[in-house]
Amino acid sequence: MNNQKRREIFTRWRDANPEPTTELDYTTPFELLIAVILSAQATDKGVNKATARLFPVANTPEAILALGLEGLKTHIRTIGLYNAKAENILKTCRILVEQHGGQVPRERAALEALPGVGRKTANVILNTAFGEPTIAVDTHIFRVANRTGLAPGKTPLAVEQRLLKVVPAEFRRDAHHWLILHGRYTCLARSPRCGTCLIADLCDYKDKTP
Ligand code: SF4
């Protein structure tokens, strides 16, 4: 795929959705961090249901620490892997209080040092909470980048690095959300909706559906 096509793809996504954002509900960087940790192998809808119960009761590291492990679990037990996630969240809250004044740090290394936070989560926080032009490659972005030819790569990291290289600067901050939404609602894993796809004429995928 050439750069002209890439620019056209992002221009169409921007025209259709000028201010894309996450489907996770949050009002502060800390709430977003907790929502993203909870979202591993869970749907955004399921996470939103749980955080709608949790955040009115506790939406700061101090308040979640005060809930304790069992208290936290009662609010998130509808989410898969909630035992492990609850433990990671408590450890993360402790580090935030002890090392970051109760705030979510804006540096990648400090974010990735938090339990339950890997490169992908750090990218989401840097991008969505702090407006940095990072791209968090999840399963949707990995598929869309490879299928369309936008930024092929064998690993999520390879795709991330390629996207950062080839996405024009003006689209870089929002690229993450356009790609995820495209993968979630149009370029579906099993049967992509090529017939109604906004970028079908620009996409390199050989087996387009009617
Ligand atoms: S044309 Fe099909 S394969 Fe290509 S991006 Fe659209 S939905 Fe995905």
Automatic annotation (TrEMBL):
Cross-referenced InterPro entries? DNA_glycosylase, Endonuclease-III-like_CS2, Endonuclease3_FeS-loop_motif, Endouclease-III_FeS-bd_BS, HhH-GPD_domain, HhH_base_excis_C, HhH_motif, Nth
The catalytic activity of this protein is classed by the Enzyme Commission as 4.2.99.18
Cofactors demanded by this protein = [4Fe-4S] cluster
So what does this thing catalyse? Answer: 2'-deoxyribonucleotide-(2'-deoxyribose 5'-phosphate)-2'-deoxyribonucleotide-DNA = a 3'-end 2'-deoxyribonucleotide-(2,3-dehydro-2,3-deoxyribose 5'-phosphate)-DNA + a 5'-end 5'-phospho-2'-deoxyribonucleoside-DNA + H(+)
Question: Which BP terms from GO are recorded?
Answer: base-excision repair, AP site formation
GO function terms (MF aspect): 4 iron, 4 sulfur cluster binding; class I DNA-(apurinic or apyrimidinic site) endonuclease activity; DNA binding; DNA N-glycosylase activity; metal ion binding
Tell me the keywords, alphabetical order.
Answer: 4Fe-4S, DNA damage, DNA repair, DNA-binding, Endonuclease, Glycosidase, Hydrolase, Iron, Iron-sulfur, Lyase, Metal-binding, Nuclease
Report the residue ranges that make up the HhH-GPD domain in this protein: 38-185
Q: Has keyword Iron-sulfur?
A: yes
State the Pfam families in the record: EndIII_4Fe-2S, HHH, HhH-GPD
Tell me which SUPFAM superfamilies the record gives.
DNA-glycosylase
Tell me the residue numbers annotated for binding [4Fe-4S] cluster.
187, 194, 197, 203
Q: Identify the domain of life.
A: Bacteria
Q: Which protein family is it in?
A: Belongs to the Nth/MutY family.
* Role of this protein: DNA repair enzyme that has both DNA N-glycosylase activity and AP-lyase activity. The DNA N-glycosylase activity releases various damaged pyrimidines from DNA by cleaving the N-glycosidic bond, leaving an AP (apurinic/apyrimidinic) site. The AP-lyase activity cleaves the phosphodiester bond 3' to the AP site by a beta-elimination, leaving a 3'-terminal unsaturated sugar and a product with a terminal 5'-phosphate.
What is the protein name for this chain?
Answer: Endonuclease III
Q: Which organism is it from?
A: Ectothiorhodospira haloalkaliphila
What's the name of its gene?
Answer: nth
